[in-house]
Amino acid sequence: MSKNKKIAILGGGESGVGTAILALKQGYDVFVSDFGKIKDKYKAELEKLGVSWEEAGHTEAKIMDASVVMKSPGIPDNAALVIKIKEQGIPVISEIEFAAEYTSAKIIGITGSNGKTTITKWIYHILKNSGLNVSMAGNVGDSFAKQVAGNPVDYFVLELSSFQLDGIVDFRPDIAVLANITPDHLDRYNYNLDEYVASKFRITKNQTEDDFFIYDADDEIISKWLKANSVKAQMIPFSLQKKLEMGAYLEDNNIKINLNNTQFIMPNSALALEGKHNIKNAMAASTVSQLLRIRKETIRASMENFQGVEHRLEKVLKINNVMYVNDSKATNTNATYYALESMESETVWIVGGVDKGNVYSELLPLVNEKVKAIICLGVDNSKIFEAFGNCVDTIVETNSMKEAVGMAYKFAERGNTVLLSPACASFDLFENYEDRGRQFKDSVRNL
Looking at the structure, do residues 152 and 80 belong to the same domain, yes or no? Predict the structure, then answer.
């Protein structure tokens, strides 16, 4: 087989195996290489496919023989092997870039520092309820490549991280949503916010005048970028702060969306999810639905009966009149800001993990107002002690979820809330944020 049909896949996880499935279907000679261990379920899939693979190290000669390399999103661009591949002139792309070439489906792409999972699932929920042939991929569900290989649909709703967008060349969503931008993953962007912002805006870089770009007009970082740069797509803002001639805004406790000389109106009290951030999430999801000309009745019903996202302000149990809330998906301070803002009672806050360059000062007013005790759950909690040590009477360190929940049970009184909203990544003590959230729920149920 000629070199022009060889693909090397770095990473044997969900996106890597999905790419292997699609690449094989497209006639590529496929080699999967993982520096760590490949999970048994993915090994079994690769074996079934008859794909050549390796783990616990890379055979560079085989990788350098490829015409294209797909890099899983968890591998940084500055990894020595990635730099070497690029120096050889071999394209290094993301799964999203590779898979998009092989589908004619309309693509709705959603990115942002916070809220992108909720918006993605909400859009999918509306489209599904309207009877469209739609699937959801990216950071949620089965990989995009795997679904392109075996699941022909008319619409894809893709949740896209900055890491996935870093590896695109020609990828172009028909509708792009940029929910918000706050400092996150700065450890991957040389602690340079501008690099991270540029990464997020890659979602619109290949869009044309026929495409749509939906964005938060209240977000200062987004507004600043848009003043200095141009976007080809038709721009549709949403806002809680200003009335818009075109776009979505809030007026008299109603969400109003003006598009194509038609108006959609819905009381925000009817939304399935609480909190100001979810009004914005609803605006983004319903704007997409309006562009796709989905019936207003379907949009309203789907806004009201959406179930929300696991590990995102998820009410777990009420014990002794204390509500336990799982917000493990809050892996940065902005997500935690939304969580604390939505608390209506005195709160015992469980926080901590792997800090990605957090600045905690924005949380100080909310912590002063709402938090009665802080329970640190991480290997290094020094920044949390430094930021909040003078705000609360009680701040303690714990080494396991069971211990943290036990402490919270001790500190919480009737009418209080216990909130797990870590503002940090989970990799010091947990496999991922899902594992952290599940351990929280298990520990609460075992009280």
Answer: no
347 and 435: one domain? yes
Note whether 246 and 374 are same-domain residues: no
CATH of the domain at 361: 3.90.190.20
> Which H or E run contains 350?
strand 347-351
Annotated binding site for ATP: 112-118
Alpha-carbon distance 104 to 308, whole Å?
A: 29
Which domain covers residue 40, as residue numbers? 3-93
Question: Which residues does the annotation place in the binding site?
Answer: 112-118
Handedness of CA 56, 61, 62, 64 (dihedral sign): positive
Pair (327, 437) in one structural domain: yes
The predicted model scores a pTM of: 0.82
Q: Are residues 16 and 88 in the same domain?
A: yes
Is 124:284 a contact under the CB 8 Å cutoff?
no
Answer yes or no: do 338 and 418 share one domain.
Answer: yes
Longest CA–CA separation in the chain, Å: 70
Measured CA to CA, the distance from residue 161 to residue 212 in angstroms comes to 19
Beta-bridged to residue 70, according to DSSP, are 9, 93
395, β-bridge pairs:
374
Supply the CATH number for residue 179's domain. Answer: 3.40.1190.10
Q: How far apart are CA 388 and CA 385, in angstroms?
A: 5
Q: Which of 287, 305, 323 delimits the end of a domain? A: 305
Q: Are residues 54 and 171 in the same domain?
A: no
Q: What is the pLDDT along the chain (447 residues), one digit of tens a residue?
A: 345 799 999 999 999 999 999 999 999 999 999 999 999 999 999 999 999 999 999 999 999 999 999 999 888 888 999 999 999 999 999 999 999 999 999 999 999 988 899 999 999 999 999 999 999 998 887 899 999 999 789 999 999 998 899 989 999 999 999 999 987 667 777 787 888 999 999 999 999 999 999 999 999 999 999 999 999 999 999 999 999 999 999 999 999 999 988 899 999 888 888 888 899 999 999 999 999 999 999 999 999 988 877 898 999 999 999 999 999 999 989 889 989 998 989 999 999 998 877 889 999 999 999 999 999 998 889 999 999 999 999 999 999 999 999 999 999 999 999 999 999 988 888 999 999 999 999 999 999
Instruction: Examine the fold and report which residue of 73, 93, 113 is the final residue of a domain before the chain moves on.
Output: 93
If we measure between CA atoms, which residue out of 401, 396, 392, 384 comes closest to residue 443? 401
How many structural domains is the chain composed of?
3
Judge if 244 and 393 occupy the same domain: no
CB neighbours (10 Å) of residue 339?
26
